[in-house]
Each structure stands twice: as structure tokens, then as C-alpha cells.
Amino acid sequence: MSELASPDVVPVPERGGTASVVVDSVTKVFNRGRPDEVTALSDVHLTVGDGEFVSLIGPSGCGKSTLLRLIADLIEPTTGTVTVAGKPAAQARRDQEYGIAFQQAGLFEWRTVRRNVELPLELRGMSRADRRARAERMLELVGLADFAGHYPGQLSGGMQQRVAIARALAVQPPLLLMDEPFGALDEMTRERLQSELLGICATTGTSAVFVTHSISEAVFLSDRVVVMSARPGRITASIEVRLPSRDEAGRQAPAYFEKITEVRQALRA
Amino acid sequence: MRRVLPPVLFGVLALGLWELFVTLGRVAPFILPAPSAIGAQILEQKQNIWDSALASGANALAGLIGGTLLAVLAALAASRSRFLGEVSIPFAAVVNALPIIALAPILNNMFESTSSVPRRLVTGIVVFFPVFLNLLRGLREVSPVHQELMRTYAASGWTFARKVRLPGALPHLFTGLRQASSLAVIAAVVAEYFGGLQDGLGARITSAAAFTAYPRAWAFVAGACLLGLTFYLVTLLLERLAMPWKQRLIS
User: Fold this and answer.
1) Is Transmembrane helix one of the keywords UniProt gives this record (chain B) (predicted)?
2) What is the helix, strand, coil percentage profile of chain A, to 5?
3) Do B245 and A109 touch (CB under 8 A)?
4) How close B76 gets to chain A, by Cα (Å)?
5) Which residues in chain A have their CB less than 8 angstroms from residue B152's CB?
6) How far off is chain A from B251, nearest CA to CA, in Å?
7) Are the CB atoms for A98 and A175 separated by under 8 Å?
8) Between the CA of residue A155 and those of A61, A107, A110, A146, B28, what are the distances in Å?
9) A108 and B167 in contact by Cβ < 8 A?
10) At A48, is the secondary structure helix, strand, or coil?
11) What tens digit of pLDDT does each residue of B230-239 get?
12) Contact B145 A106 (CB under 8 A)
């Protein structure tokens, strides 16, 4: 944005500023003008700070996945603007300013684990040696360095999801978008991956937007839990979480249970 | 070993029962010759079986390769264009329902009697459809997650086709090829029943039957059977080589 921009333009934070994502007055209507018209999101405002971990939680149909897809520029808002890393969402997507992971790992079964992680780098035109080194580092980060040569079909669901996270991190994006990435995993695996994810975000300084329908998961992971409600999808509460620590002790802390209660009440409201 | 043994045992047992049935039941050789008689003919005719199998095999292979190449190109085109895709599937289904082998006499009349082209054409047409239909289905079945991922990578249409669509459709391609490889041999052999150049297994079978030399006809049928099996196994081998990630599943 230049200084010549007209004053009514929403100020966009500079790159490296304090906001990783700015969702401004966004409304999303599906099947507009048809009898099955649905307002998935209505007048949503959301700002995710640099390095902040934000969870979106709410009942199904509240538009949390829609909001994530808007940030990812997989769909476009009906009205309003989405800014990612200081750029319009479409530009941010083209520049691979974010990494994304879904509930399904979505690995390419014909590629080895390492080459799955390499794919986004390959499409960026990174040299073979560089992307190999980078992929191996990412796999180390998720504890799968020994499985680089395996095919996804040979891995368990939890391991596949870790590969998907390594792939999302491969371009070293400033932002990580996740749509219930641990939704299909058993409780033990889920808790282990949660801790791993937090460690990765802390060491890399990555911001995250994390969609979940598990209250405890949202509270444990997040700096802030954004509560949404359905029909039409909107944000009803934004709850700051400050746990003394994010480890086993954190899961036992009174603050953790207080926040769980607070989020639960916000969801009921 | 434990997986090979049962079918082999079963086969030997079945041949033994067949032999017993024919000798004890005094079944006339023109109705059903005994396996021993057929075996003797196979040994006696082995050079002829080999030569005619080579001729039929060459026809089947030419048709298989030509038909497959054409089918792959057509499927790629049909998967890229909505119109072609919508038109081609019902069209292919209708043509596939025709007994394509029935084209053999017509094609035979279109070429010289010394030409191998008609048999190869029939084989190529027979091969085309299973490969085309299966591959097209595979090319269209892209998982939504992969689609979204490639969009987040800002991948172009061509990159998407090369890195996701084609490798993702390989299993479907090979499903089609497995059907096509057996069909190719059948088509190459049976096309000779309707005239044209007579140097393959089909011609040998008809002429042996015409001379009421039934064990000999069966010997050539056995040759055709082995040829079909060879084609099928080579396709399976190619499939394993082309898709190392499926190795555990196929073996």
C-alpha cells in the first residue's frame, strides 16, 4: 500500500508487522440467488497476530472450515477482504505464504515420504539437492527421519498426519492453516502430535489457525480460542488462554480446566 | 510356496480326473480327448505351436501397443475437455458392447490376404475400450484433498496433470491393461477364424478341427491359453515395476 491510498482503505499491516491474518467484515454466501442459498459466514472479523496460535471452534455448520478456506484462498469471500502476511489472500497463496493440513493427510501414495514433503518445494523450482536437504530436516522435526524412503501406504494414520504437517512446514511459511488435522486420530496419538506441533510452532515462530471441534484440544494448543456459532456462521466469543506451561503439567493446571469451562459456556451461549 | 502349491495340486488333480473320466467312460475323442492324447500332440506339434504362437503373439502385441497408445491419448484429451468427456463415455460404452470381433471378416476383405493388418486392427479396437474407459475414470477421480493442496501450491493445469492426475490414474490404467492383455490374445486368435492370413494359432485350430484331428486342435488351444497367460503375467510384472508403492498389495 502506498501513501497515496485513499483514507477509507482499511489499513493493512506491513509485512513482518503484528498481524499474520486479517479477516475484515467477511461474509460468505453459498449458492447465491438460488433457493438453497446458505449464509455460511456473516460479518466476520478476525486478526491473528504474528506467532499467535488461534483455534476456531464451534458446532458443525458454524463456518469454521469455511473461514479457514477463505484465509487459504481456496474460496473467495462474498463481501469483505482477507489479508494474509500483508497481502491479499490470493497473492499470499501464490507466494506460498502459508502451509496447510487437512483432516485427511492427503499424501500422494505414489511418492515416498520424502518426495511428498518435497512436492511444494519442487513446484517452487527449488534445486534437487536443496529440497532433499530441506525435506529431510522437516521429517526430522516430526520425528520421521527414518521413514523418508517409505511409501505413505506403509505408515500408520498418525505417521501420515505427521508427514502432512512436515509437508505443510516445508516451505517454512510464516503461517500454518490446519483443518482438524488430528480429528481422525486416537487420543494418545493426538496428544503426542499436539505437543509436537506446539514445539514446532515455538521453534519456528509460525502463526497458526487451527480448526477443531475438541474443546480440550483448542484450549491446550491456543493463545486464543475463537468460538463460533451456526446459522449464520459468526464469531461469538474470543477467549485468551494463558496456561502456565503447555505440557503434561499444563494439562493438569487449574487454569486449563477453567478455560475449558469458559469455552464450553461460550459454546452453549 | 504355500500359495503356489494349492492351485498346482488342484490342476494336477483336475487333469487326473479328466483322464480317468475319458478312459473309463469311453468318451469318444471327438467329444473330449484325454489330456494324455492332447499332451502327446503338444509334444509332436511343439515347433508348429511355437511358430503359430509367435505369429499370433506378434499380432496381439502390435494391437495391444497400438490400441493402448491411442486409448491413453484419447483418455487424456477426454479428461481435459468437458465436452469430449461427456460425449465419449456413452459412445465408448455403446461401441464396447458391439462384438468387435465380428468386424474381422469385413476388415479381412478390406486388405490383401497376405496382410497382418486386419487382425491387428481388430485387436487394437478390442484393446482400446477397456484401457480408455478405465484410464478416463482414473483421470477424473482426483481426491478433493489433492485438488485443494495443488491449488494452495498454485500449480498450473499441466503440472497438476503430470504430478497428480497421471500417477493417480496408473492403477486404473493397469486395471484396463490387465483386461486388455487377455482380450488382445483372444482377438488375435479368433480373428483368424474369419479368413485373412493363416499363420497363427486360430488358423491351426480351425484346420485341425476341420480334419477331425481333435487332440491336435486342443493342443493349439492349450498354446493359445499359454500365450494369453504370458501376456497377462507380463502385464502384472509391468504393473509391479510401474507402481512400486503397491508392491505389498499385489504380491
Assistant:
1) yes
2) 40, 25, 40
3) yes
4) 19
5) 72-74, 93, 96, 98, 100
6) 14
7) yes
8) 32, 11, 13, 12, 60
9) yes
10) strand
11) 999 999 999 9
12) yes
- Would the CB atoms of A123 and B159 count as touching at under 8 Å? yes
- Residues A184 and A140 placed together within one structural domain of the fold: no
Last-in-domain residue among A172, A198, A216: A172
Cα-based angle A139, A143, A148 (whole degrees, multiple of 5):
45
Assess if residue B201 is contained within a domain: yes
Alpha-helix residue ranges (DSSP H) falling in chain A: 64-71, 89-94, 113-123, 128-141, 157-169, 187-204, 215-221, 248-252, 254-268
Residue B249 with chain A: CB contacts under 8 Å: 153
Q: What is the pLDDT of residue A17?
A: 52
- Of A172, A194, A225, the position where a domain reaches its end is A172
Reply yes or no on whether the pLDDT at B165 is more than 50. Answer: yes
Q: Is A33 left (phi over 0), alpha (psi -120 to 50) or beta?
A: left
> B245: which chain A residues are within 8 Å (Cβ-Cβ)?
109-112, 151-153
For residues A69 and A234, give the distance between their C-alpha atoms in angstroms, rounded to a whole number. Answer: 15
Judgement on whether residues A137 and A248 belong to the same structural domain of the protein: no
pTM for the whole structure = 0.76
In a domain, residue A11? The reply is: no
Q: How far apart are CA B244 and CA A153, in angstroms?
A: 11
Residue B69: CATH number of its domain: 1.10.3720.10
Query: What domain range is B131 assigned to?
Result: 55-250
Contact assessment for residue B191 and residue B106, using Cβ atoms and an 8 Å cutoff: no
Helices (DSSP H) in A25-102: which residue ranges?
A: 64-71, 89-94
On whether ipTM exceeds 0.85, the answer is no
Q: Is the pLDDT of residue A154 over 80?
A: yes
CA nearest to B191, candidates B127, B130, B120? B120
Q: Nearest by CB to A74, from B151, B167, B246: name it.
A: B151
DSSP annotation of B195 reads: S
Residue A234: CB atoms within 10 A of its CB come to 18
Exposure of A164 by Cβ count < 10 A (0-12 exposed, 13-18 middle, 19+ buried)?
buried
Distances (CA, A) of B65 to A210, A256, B126, B184: 50, 66, 12, 10
